[in-house]
Write a structure and sequence with these properties.
Number of strands: 15
Radius of gyration: 18 Å
Number of helices: 5
Shape: globular
Order of helices and strands: EHEEHEEEHHHEEEEEEEEE
Strand content: 25-35%
Structural class: alpha+beta
């Protein structure tokens, strides 16, 4: 399956270290050779880099590795295709607008019967993946539930968690979702996170010969949380999320979390 990477920080921070490890899994130390993408938020705007080539051999990925773009929210994905052709329109992350914000989405997993179980009307996919289809369904459900007015952040993302539980019934659904201010992570079967803050130490990548002393590149007030499918370093303590668990991060801090339960599942999706 694919692999996810995301970051939430309280100060503009580059993700070069973590991305250097992840990109090696895209065709070098891992089989995820069917494209990659990354989105950086800058204020209300965002910039995305995508390539259907393996990240380990992509000149664009090399550029991102060496270009320290600083952001408070980042979403990244390397793909091992199981739904949809290997092409640019099927490359994560996907970005759509809602409530005057750019929403970025990336998915790891595989969904069965998504075309019949997740009916969509307002947000039409550009590509042919089950992942983008599920994203469009989530946006449709948010539009139906809340209309033109964005709700309180905890109300909104608690509802997103219930939508994720509904989708997860169709297969495997590990999710990263961001509006630039928040970073939401939902675990189906494999997702880890780590928060780095003072006192900072050293860390070494698993997939590349690279070590960094975070104390040399941070201040005492910095808080940075990294979410990944599998831990990227071998000398830090990563938190493994359980099935159905979700976290909402803002400025590097988890501001809400929960565990979806069977009795909390929402009714079948609305049809049109």
């Amino acid at each position: 399956m694919c692999e996810l990477l995301a970051m939430s920080a309280n100060v503009p921070t580059d993700i070069c270290f973590s991305f250097s490890g992840l990109m090696q899994r895209g065709g070098n130390t891992g089989p995820h050779k069917d494209g990659w993408g990354i989105t950086f938020y800058e204020g209300k705007g965002c910039r995305s880099f995508k390539d259907p080539l393996p990240s380990a051999h992509s000149p664009i990925a090399e550029l991102v590795t060496n270009y320290p773009i600083k952001s408070e929210a980042v979403v990244c994905h390397i793909r091992q295709a199981n739904s949809g052709a290997v092409c640019l329109e099927n490359t994560h992350p996907f970005v759509r607008q809602m409530w005057g914000k750019n929403w970025t989405y990336a998915h790891n997993g595989q969904l069965a019967d998504h075309l019949t179980q997740l009916k969509i009307k307002y947000h039409i996919p550009i590509g042919t993946t089950d992942s983008e289809h599920a994203f469009c369904w989530i946006l449709d459900q948010l539009h139906i539930e809340f209309a033109e007015k964005e709700p309180d952040e905890k109300v909104l993302f608690s509802y997103v968690a219930k939508l994720c539980e509904r989708i997860n019934q169709l297969g495997v659904f590990n999710l990263i979702l961001s509006d630039g201010d928040h970073l939401f992570a939902y675990c189906s079967n494999n997702l880890h996170w780590i928060t780095r803050k003072a006192p900072f130490g050293e860390a070494s990548l698993i997939d590349a010969e690279m070590c960094v002393d975070f104390q040399q590149v941070t201040t005492a007030n910095d808080i940075v949380t990294v979410i990944a499918t599998r831990p990227l370093t071998n000398d830090e303590s990563w938190h493994k999320m359980s099935c159905g668990q979700w976290h909402l991060f803002k400025l590097g801090v988890s501001i809400a979390c929960g565990q979806t339960e069977a009795e909390e599942r929402i009714p079948p999706a609305q049809t049109f």
